[in-house]
Design brief:
285 residues; alpha/beta; TIM Barrel; nine-stranded mixed sheet; three-stranded antiparallel sheet; 10 helices; 12 strands; 21% strand; globular; signal; PLC-like_Pdiesterase_TIM-brl; Altered inheritance of mitochondria protein 6
């Protein structure tokens, strides 16, 4: 194995060991009946906007879902915009309790027979520090459900919660010696002191970093930039996701998705669950 290829493989393995986001080979639980293979690269952006939040994504085998949260009167409500807030649509009722029930029913995993943690990306829309403290309280109530960090060590659970959104959440998270969530970094965090045990995921805006939107071939400089980002992240045991990629069905979207797959990007962002499922199945993703 060439040195560069070996470093990338070790980086991917380090990410798997750091936060439990394993490759299919590492994730397969030996023995017993297996359910459908989860799509490790499928990320349900704005998951809560689907008719059946969480469950539609799981039916399409997505292994990462995103929920936007607001701290309102001491509880965490799920919505994209304040006008859509509904006291009945809480993080607990839409995600935490259903995931806990599913893991119990599936003998310790989100997908039966596949011990690859589901990523729950939680995007904080209100002031980050206060919202995170309530989130931390709610996550801790579900003992054994979430991947945890304690005194320098990561313990993998059926679900890995990653906190995104308002950057003020970072300070209280870094101050904790034990926590039930991890931090979603940005490209500016690449190469910094933040370890994968705190920042396992690097996310950024595709359109703010690349001009190519799938028409014609990707410029050579942008392809090199993309692969350099992925290589740098994987060498540190971190995964990569871009939001604001083209998401209208057609050849441009497929071209971008194919380029992301070829570069080793870990999560493909979409609101089109069936479309990405079909694409990944066709491309062995």
């Amino acid at each position: 194995m060439a040195p560069t290829t070996r470093r990338r493989a070790l980086g991917t393995l380090a990410a798997a060991l750091a936060v439990g986001v394993a490759t299919p080979q590492l994730a397969h639980a030996g023995g017993g009946k297996r359910g459908p293979r989860p799509l490790l690269r499928a990320h349900a952006h704005n998951d809560y906007d689907h008719p059946r939040p969480l469950f539609d994504a799981l039916d399409h085998r997505f292994n990462s879902v995103e929920a936007d949260i607001y701290l309102v009167d001491g509880d965490l409500l799920v919505a994209h915009d304040p006008v859509d807030l509904d006291p009945n649509r809480t993080l607990e009722s839409l995600y935490l309790a259903p995931l806990a029930a599913r893991v119990r029913a599936q003998h310790g995993s989100v997908y039966r027979g596949w011990h690859t943690p589901l990523q729950l990306l939680i995007d904080i829309k209100t002031e980050g520090a206060a919202t995170y403290l309530e989130l931390d309280r709610q996550l801790r109530r579900h003992h054994g459900l979430f991947t945890t960090y304690a005194h320098g060590r990561v313990r993998t659970g059926p679900v890995t919660a990653v906190v995104s959104g308002d950057r003020a959440a970072r300070a209280p998270m870094e101050a904790q010696r034990t926590r039930s969530a991890f931090y979603d970094g940005r490209l500016s965090d690449l190469g910094t002191a933040a370890p994968a045990s705190f920042t396992p995921l690097i996310s950024d805006n595709w359109s703010a970093n690349f001009t190519w939107q799938g028409t014609g071939p990707i410029p050579a400089a942008e392809r090199a930039k993309l692969r350099g980002i992925v290589s740098a992240a994987h060498e540190r045991g971190q995964r990569v996701r871009f939001w604001a990629t083209p998401d209208v069905a057609g050849p441009e979207r497929d071209a971008v998705w194919a380029e992301l797959l070829a570069a080793g990007v870990d999560h493909l962002n979409t609101d089109d669950l069936a479309g990405l499922e079909a694409f990944l199945d066709a491309h062995n993703g």
